Every structure is written in structure tokens, then in C-alpha cells.
Amino acid sequence: MCGQWCVCELFLSVAGRSGRPASPIGTGVPGLAVYQRGLSMSQPRHSTDRDAGSEKGNSARYVPPLELTKGQPPPIAANGGLSYMSFDRDGDAGTAEATRAAFEQIAVGEGQAVTDLLENAPPGPIETKWGVGFRHYEECLAHIRASGMQAPEGGVVLPLRYTIHEQPSYSIVSSNALWRDPSREADAQALRKEEHDTARRCLYFPQVLRDARRLEEYYPGLSPTSSECMDRLGLALAHCESKCENFYDAAEVERVFYPEMEKLLLDLFPGATDALVYNHDVFDKDYSGDRTEDQNNKNPGVNAQYANIVHNDLNDNSGRVRARELLIHNLRNFGRTQHYTAEEADAKLSRRFMSINLAKPMEPVGQYPFVLCAWPSFADQPYITNYRIYDDRVGETTRFTYRPEHEWYWFPQQTSTEVSMLKCYDSITDGSVSRWSFHSACVDPTAAEDAPCRKNVVVRSFVFF
To answer: In DSSP terms, which residues pair with 181 in a beta bridge?
Structure first.
């Protein structure tokens, strides 16, 4: 370990999976008294006035069963993995309880201890229980070059950013009313700091990316453009010559591009009965126009940042909950209006359904490519839940820790007619198909200095069988 700083033992004391450190580090968060009611995070408070999963007398309340994949360890999550819908009070979908838990976690100080460990470490590599990591991209890239790591034809070796904090995290989304309440400015400041610090509890690790177009070289007989590829690996490639002329016009994207993607999905999955594209994001670092998000008018705005941390958009809970929200309530649905009753939605969701993200560039991608990881390489790895707290729902996304065996793919110089596809959720849990992929953006060290940054549109969908 010469020249490396080792945090393995330290993380055992401040970042274990018990949910609390041996002794609290740090106290005193503004506003905490509002939420801290003497409740331990390891002893969640459950609703007792209504049966879990019942919607009698309250059509908004639905508690999903935790549906782990066969062979998958339990998630690293609050409440033993139980959805915050279990803590619903008067139709708030558990948002008050999730907000309370967010402030309690800040007060405990475990995350701050991890941040301090990394900030106070000497320069250079950091030895973790997963392998050698680096705080800065350039350090990791220098390590890759010095160690002589090689990639197969069409591939590349580069730094990818993983969390090293094996604890659930909380994020108060920008639309939450808390941010607009002058009386809660101190709370807002504490949350902003925690959001910033959560990103600092990550390190760069070296990974080999394979060319997804050459996938049959690694899996003979498996075409990257097939549904079999999605079932087996959680990723695929499709072709689309869109008639959408302006991807910055949200109304045109909904009118033209959404139906194109729905048809693409139905063509890819011949057993599917319905496909619903329900929202989209536009990514363009160099865009000079108005980036403003307007949810009421179904306009996601234009993102200037690329999500360069290994993550997935859904998990065991949120895959099923998000589908139900769309079918019954049209909650944040930018696509076709849905008119299902709770009973009709449950019948539809009793059959197989999956969530697919589809990413199409507006022009060939030069920098900040979109990269995907194949399911078999992490099927037995627990995910770490991130809770996204809205005013009316608690979303759940996931993060993952590093493994050198993770099987990553990219599409070098992805063109405007190539659509990269990744699975975010599958209702099948018996291990016969992939449950999801995880993904990230990254910096390509082989790209020219003036290479154009990725300009693409990403749509989110559900496919029903």
C-alpha cells in the first residue's frame, strides 16, 4: 500500500450498514426539532390505522411490496427497504417522514465524517475495500496510464465515479415548497450543504468500457439490437430517423418523438401490448437559450450538467410505484393521458412490465458519452437507495459501489440515428432476466479538446405485456 492512504478500517466504524455509527459525530442541525421525535432510523414508525397496500378510503395510498430479485442481497435503504408510502399521513405519500429522516441523518453526522475523512486524506490514491480510488479525475487517469491498463478494440479505459458511502441518501427536489419558504432558510442551507457533500462522498475508479456495437464478439449470437440483449444484459441499441426537427421544443418532442419511441419499443418487444413514453430530458452543456424547467407546461428545460455518478433511476419500490402513479393519477406525465382505475392498474401491473430509458443524440457525440453497465456483472450486488423528496411523493433511485468486474459498454461517437437503451426496472424477479442496468456520464480522455459535448434527448418509458 506504499503511497496510498487506506480508509478501509475507518469506514467500518463510520460507514457500516447498521444505519448508525458507534457514536454520533456532529450535532445541531437547524430545524431538526421539527422532525426529530425520538425515533431511531433503525426502528421505523409504521402506519397502524390502515392495512399496508390497502387503498380503501384513500385512493392515493399504495405501499408496494419489496420485490427482491432471486439471489439479490437486501438493499442498503431506510426502513428495511420499505417504501415511504407506508408512512403516509393524510395523503402526503410519506414526504413528512422522509424529510424528518433527512434531517436526522444530517444530525447524526455519519456522512460528514466520511466527507472529512476524504477531505483530510493526503494527496494521491485512496485504498478502499473495493479497490484503489481517487478524488480527482486526473489522478485516476494518470494511474490508468501508469499501470498500462488496456481496452479491447473499440473500447477505452477511463475513470468512472462511484459512491463510497454505503448509506441511503436524501435529496429535496427543486420543486419542493421548502425551498420557497423564507422561514426555513436555515433548513435549506443545511440541505444544500448535505446535497453538495453527498457528491463529495464519491471517488473515481478505473474501468474498461467495451464497444457495444461489438457486443456479439463477447456474447456470440446475441445481437445488440435485440430484445434478448435487453433481457440478458439490461441494455440494447436501436435505430431511429426521427421526424422531430426541434428537440428544444418540448411540445414538438411530445407530439412527434414520443410516438416514434413508443413504436420503436413495441417493435423491439413483440410480446408487448402497450408502451408509454411519459417524460424526457434534454442535455446540452453549450446551449445558450432559456433552460427554465416548467413542469406545468410539460417542459423539462435544458440540462447543462451530465450525471457523472454511477446510478439507476428506479428500484424495487419506485418501478412499481411510478407506473401506478402514471396509470391512475397521470402524475408528472408528459405523454398520453391515462385513465385507469386502481383495480384496472393493478390488473395491468400483475403482468410483466418494465421501464426503459432511450437516449438519442441530436448530433454525433464527441464528449461526455452515455455509458451503460451489463446486469450480470452486478446482479448479486446490493443497491444503495437515494430518496428524492417531492411535495407529493418520495421517489427512489439507486447508487452502487465499485467493482472492477463491472461490465461497462459505450457507443463511440454515437450518431444521431443510434438510440442507446437501458432498462431501469423489470417486474420479473426470478432471476431469468435482467432487473435493470446502471449508467453514468463520463469524460472521454481520447476525445479531441474541441470535441462537441453530448447534445441528446433522453425519454423515459414503461412497456407493458
So the answer is: none
